[in-house]
Specification:
Blueprint: H1 2-6, H2 11-18, H3 21-24, H4 39-58, H5 72-78, H6 89-100, H7 122-134, H8 145-162, E1 169-173, H9 176-191, E2 199-204, H10 209-217, E3 225-228, H11 238-250, E4 254-261, H12 273-283, E5 286-291, E6 315-318, H13 320-323, E7 331-335, H14 338-345, H15 377-387, H16 389-411, E8 416-420, E9 426-431, H17 438-454, E10 461-465, E11 468-474, H18 482-500
Parallel strand pairs: 2-3, 2-4, 4-5, 5-6
Antiparallel strand pairs: 1-7, 6-7, 8-9, 9-11, 10-11
Helix pairs in contact: 4-6, 7-15, 8-15, 9-10, 9-14, 16-18, 17-18
C-alpha cells in the first residue's frame, strides 16, 4: 500500500489494477521486488530482439557455413558468477548475436549439408515465443484442453501420414533419444514384464548410438544388445538376425525387440523393413523403427516405396526437427497399440485432475514420463497451419531429387568412389587413386571435406565405417536449393582435383 500511496493511487484504484494485469505492469519499474516489465519495456525488448533475429535470419545465406569453433579461450572468458544486478539489454544481446552465435556451425545455412540438418522454420520460433509468454500448462488435459487438443491433432496427423491404425497413440519428445527410450519401455513391459535380465534387443551395427543408450536406461544392458551385421548396402542382414534370435532362444534367453533404421546416420541406409516385420511377426518380437531421419519421406506418395512396410512397425521414432524442418528439440513417438504406451505411463494421484473420456481426449501425462513440460506441439501445429502439408511434401520431394542429382554428379568426378548412393537424401563417398592405401585415402577424403568447408559455401562432414573414412552429403535443410547443390559439386570437384594431382 505504501508504494501505491506514494505515487498517488488509492485503495480502490489498487483493486482495479490488481484485476487488470496490463495496467499492473506499469508499476514494475518502481517496485524493487517486482519481476514484471512495463508494457513499454516489453515492447522495447521485443523490438530489439526481433530486429536482431530478422537481420540474422535474413543474412544466413551470407554467413560462413561454419563459424570459428576453435573457442577454448572464448569459453574460458565467459565463465562468471551470477550477476547481482541487471544489465542493459543491448549489453547482453550484443555479444550474444555478434560474437557467440557466429562461433558455431551455421546449422540453418542453406549450405549446411553436414550431419542431418535441423531447419528451424521461423514460425516455430514465433510459436515458442507464444508458448513461453502465455505460459500455459499442458501436462494434463484439464489445465488447457484446447491446447492439448492441438498436440493431439499433430500426433493424429503423424499417425495418418505414417499409415498407422486408429489404435495408435503417441508422444511429443525432445528428439529420437527419448522416443527410443519410451519405445523400449513399451516393448520391455509387453514382452518381459518384471523379468528383464534375460531380454535381448537386436539392432544393426549401424544403429544410432541413442538406441543403445536408451536400452541401457530401460534396463537392457550392452551384453543383451545384439549388433547384427549389414549387407553391402549397409542394411541389416535378416538372415543374421534370424540366426541370432534362434541362438539366443536356444541359450535360454528371451528375444523381445528389434530396432531397425529408416535411414542411418552414417550412410542413410534403410533396413529391409518388410522382411524384418515378417520375422518379428513370426517370432513374436516388438519391431521398432528409428525413423528420426527418414520417416517423414513417407508423407510423399511417390517416395513411400523407399520405406516399405514402415506402417507395420509396432513403434516409430519421428524427428520433425529433421524431416519437417522444425527447430532442434522436436521429436515424436508413435506406438501402434496405444494401450502399451498408456500401460507404461498411466498413473493417477489425488492432486491430478482426470479426463472426461480418456478414450476420446488425449492427456499427455498418461502417455509420457513428464508431468512438467512445455508446449512442443504448438511449433509443429503453427508451421503446418501456416504453410500447409502440401508445401512440406514438395520440399521433401525436392530434397530427395537434389540428393540424387548431387550423388550422380559427384560420383562421376575423377577419383571419387561412391560407397553409398542415396537411399533417401544422404550419400557417402571417398577419394581413391591407383595404388592408394586405405590410410592414404582416409587422409585425402578428410582433407577434401575440410577444404570444401573452409571455402565457406557448404559444410560437409564424414564418418568412419569399418576403418574407412567416408565423406557424407545430407540434403535436408528447407533452405538448400539448386544453387547450393551446384556449389557443393563445384567445390568438391575443384578440391578433389587438387588433392589428386600427382597421385596415380
Amino acid at each position: 500500500m505504501h508504494l501505491l500511496e506514494k505515487i498517488g493511487f488509492g485503495f480502490e484504484r489498487m483493486v482495479r489494477l490488481m484485476s487488470d494485469s496490463a495496467e499492473l505492469m506499469l508499476l514494475a519499474s518502481d517496485d524493487p521486488a517486482s519481476l514484471e516489465m512495463t508494457a513499454d519495456e516489453m515492447r522495447a525488448l521485443g523490438d530489439d530482439v526481433l530486429g536482431r533475429i530478422v537481420e540474422h535470419v535474413a543474412g544466413i545465406g551470407r554467413q560462413p557455413v561454419r563459424g570459428d569453433v576453435a573457442a577454448e579461450d572464448l569459453c574460458r572468458s565467459l565463465r562468471e558468477s551470477a550477476p547481482e544486478r541487471g544489465e542493459p539489454a543491448a549489453d547482453v544481446l550484443g555479444p550474444l548475436f555478434d560474437e557467440w552465435i557466429p562461433r558455431s556451425f551455421t546449422t540453418p545455412s542453406p549450405g549446411y549439408l553436414a550431419y542431418i540438418p535441423g531447419g528451424g522454420l521461423f514460425p516455430a520460433a514465433v510459436a515458442d515465443f507464444i508458448s513461453a509468454a502465455t505460459n500455459r500448462y499442458t501436462g494434463v488435459w484439464l489445465a488447457a484442453p484446447a491446447l492439448v487438443q492441438i498436440e493431439a491433432n499433430v500426433l493424429e496427423w503423424f499417425r495418418t501420414w505414417m499409415g498407422f491404425p486408429g489404435s495408435t497413440r503417441g508422444l511429443l519428445t525432445t528428439g529420437g533419444s527419448m522416443a527410443a527410450f519410451n519405445a523400449i519401455l513399451c516393448a520391455r513391459e509387453r514382452h518381459l514384464g518384471r523379468d528383464v535380465r534375460p531380454g535381448v534387443l537386436y539392432t544393426s551395427t549401424h544403429v544410432h548410438h541413442s538406441v543403445v543408450k536408451a536400452a541401457r536406461l530401460a534396463g537392457i544392458f550392452e551384453d543383451r544388445v545384439r549388433h547384427i551385421p549389414v549387407d553391402a548396402d549397409f542394411r541389416m542382414r535378416v538372415d543374421a538376425l534370424e540366426a541370432a534370435v534362434r541362438a539366443d532362444r536356444a541359450a535360454g534367453l528371451r528375444p523381445f525387440m528389434v530396432a531397425s533404421s529408416a535411414g542411418t546416420t552414417n550412410t542413410g541406409a534403410v533396413d529391409p523393413l518388410d522382411q524384418i516385420a515378417d520375422l518379428c511377426a513370426a517370432e513374436g518380437l516388438w519391431h521398432h523403427v528409428d525413423g528420426a531421419y527418414g520417416a517423414f519421406f513417407h508423407i510423399c506418395e511417390d517416395l513411400r516405396p523407399l520405406l516399405p512396410a514402415l506402417s507395420r512397425a509396432d513403434s516409430l521414432t519421428l524427428d520433425p526437427h529433421k524431416g519437417l524442418f522444425l527447430p532442434y528439440g522436436t521429436g515424436a513417438l508413435l506406438v501402434r497399440d496405444g494401450a502399451a504406451l498408456r500401460a507404461v505411463h498411466g498413473m493417477s494421484a489425488g492432486y491430478l485432475p482426470g479426463t472426461p473420456d480418456p478414450d476420446e481426449f488425449y492427456d499427455p501425462s498418461q502417455y509420457g514420463p513428464e508431468l512438467s513440460r512445455g508446449f512442443p506441439g504448438l511449433r509443429i501445429w503453427l508451421c503446418l497451419k501456416l504453410f500447409g502439408a502440401a508445401r512440406f511434401r514438395a520440399a521433401l520431394a525436392e530434397k530427395r531429387a537434389l540428393a540424387v542429382q548431387a550423388a550422380a554428379r559427384i560420383g562421376a568426378l575423377p577419383g571419387v568412389m561412391m560407397v553409398a548412393p542415396p537411399q533417401l537424401s544422404l550419400f557417402a563417398f571417398h577419394l581413391t587413386w591407383p595404388g592408394a592405401t586405405m590410410e592414404e585415402e582416409n587422409g585425402a577424403t578428410s582433407a577434401l571435406l575440410e577444404r570444401v568447408t573452409v571455402r565457406g559455401r557448404v559444410m560437409l562432414t564424414g564418418c568412419t565405417v569399418d576403418g574407412r573414412f567416408l565423406g557424407r552429403v545430407c540434403v535436408l535443410s528447407f533452405r538448400t536449393r539448386q544453387a547450393q547443390i551446384d556449389a557443393c559439386v563445384d567445390d568438391v570437384a575443384a578440391e578433389a582435383a587438387g588433392l589428386l594431382v600427382g597421385r596415380g
